[in-house]
# Entry
Amino acid sequence: MSSENKSKDMVPRKRETKILVKKPEPKKPVPEKPDQGVEIPILTVQDAVLFPSVILPLIITDKSSIQMIDEILTGDKVFGYVTIKKSGGEKEKNNKHPKGYDLYEYGTRAEVLKMLKFPDGSVRALVQGTDRIKLKGVIQREPYMKARVMIEKDDIEKSAELEALIRTVSNSFINMIKQIPYLPAEELQMAVMNVPNPAVLVYLIASNMNISMEEKQKFLETASIKDKLSRLASLLNRELEILKMGNQIQSEVQSEITKSQREHLLREQVKVIQRELGEGDERAAEVSELRAKLKKAKLPDEAMKVAEDELKRLMRIPSASAEYTVARTYLDWLIALPWGYATSDNMDIKRAQKTLDEDHYGLEKVKERIIEYLAVRKLKNDMRGPILCLVGPPGVGKTSLGRSIARALGRKFFRMSLGGIRDEAEIRGHRRTYVGALPGRILQGIRKAGSNNPIFMLDEVDKIGTDFRGDPSSALLEVLDPEQNFSFSDHYLEVPFNLSTVMFITTANILDTIPLPLQDRMEVLELPGYTEEEKLKIAQRYLLPRQLKEHGLTENDLKLVPAVLMKIISDYTREAGVRNLEREIAGVCRKIAKDKASGKRPPKNISTDALEKLLGPQKFFSEVAERTSEPGVATGLAWTRVGGDILFIEVTMMPGSKSLTLTGHLGNVMKESAQAALSFIRAKAKSLKMIQSRKLSQ
# Structure
């Protein structure tokens, strides 16, 4: 067996198929021995099946096969045509002849009708099948294959059912070839109508159908003509259904093409009429430009349908009408939104960690959460963006942390402040019926970011207000809910926009004023503040270099040693963040910049004693040790939204009535605490030996 053997099967696209109603008599019939069969040469072919009574052209390039053809031409011209199984295809490439189990058991005895040799050494032969054969055993492999075969006869039992099958198959085949333009319909129809032998009819139709090689081999192996006709009827019905569906699809496509051509023709006619009237040229150019932009915008199907309808409406509205401007603005917004543009995330975990460490000192919990998100996103690419809520006092770096996350991921960044928002339309947008309507600030931010997956920071989410115009925090529920924001609908656009790929980050000073349903959709990360040591590192790495650059100074002009920075932190600032610390450092830089600009030579190294001249008197003192050494003074802690402070509560005991005198601007809670303390003292007066019980009872 050789892979160089190539065959051309009688597929429906070829017209070489010829049917001989009367088979030619071989010159020298090979005698068949009873129960032993006959010995004939075997030609093995891939991907082609030869039926009895069918003529097939062959291209033979294998030397052993050419030798076999030459030898049988001097004799009876008879050989066996056997198809190679697909499972033996790989072996065919390496073996000169296939083994017996690589061949199908059934084949066709054939006769060479004509043979031509070509200069390239190949042989073209025209062969005709005569009988079905069954392989009994291979008796020779070199120089070409020989095998003992048995002649198999077709089982034809004439009956009314067989006649009905013949008519059904013939009619179906004629209907099929009429619908296929590349088949010789008239020739095949005449051949089918004039074939008296049912076996020849079966082989004629099967050879002209577009069926698999395995299916053709089954036809060859089946002995019963009735079974073959039944199978053919089923295949023809299926083929007719496919042709019917194909014709229907072709008709619909042709109808759409005709409709498009008609619309194009009408538009061209309208242009000619407008050109003759001297009007409409600029407007037509504007509409064409909008249509071209819509094609490039990559809008989803639903948005594209709305845009096409709006564009058709725009063509009918007079350009001087107010509605024209509204429709044009709406189309501009549809085109400007980044429907199909998204930046690719940088999934380098080490680089992201390095970026976050470069921008911020400390904040390990927040950094770890961002790295975890990146790691999961790297393993599972379709993960939706998390909703992080950074809670902490002012100046701890919540907003700048969002910028660092965007830089680490390689995404665009947009910040939107929610402080003081009271109108729900700020989130969802206004309907187009209102004058000056615009989309909400969410989609405005997406447009400004220029991608559909930016880092979107919602700042001051705890300062959202509520009034008669709606509740903006309730409108944010759809924006921040991963189960809903994949189809966020703005009142202005009224088409869904996918926000599931956006990574939302919210910031707040406290959680108490954030509604619980909104908190439930966010992952809260607390930033409590910095210690003095952390503030020192932040000042050295970030604050001082930034202020030197902003004031036109270099390290040769000003150097603040750690002792000076610690004095600024402890004596001139008292906060959870580093905002005031940066202001004080900026104050020092301004004084140095003033002296440098005046031509003076300011000192490069600032000492702790010189700080009072630059920043003024010390603002904060540590009086804990001094105050607690006095009797009647207790220390307490005061909590505020932006941090805390130490309180000193002084108590003085003096003769008088049972009343309690409270000084200072105290709230109701503090007053109740003082009354509770007085009640405790009066209850424990005897045991504490503070005053005679007789006097207390007065």
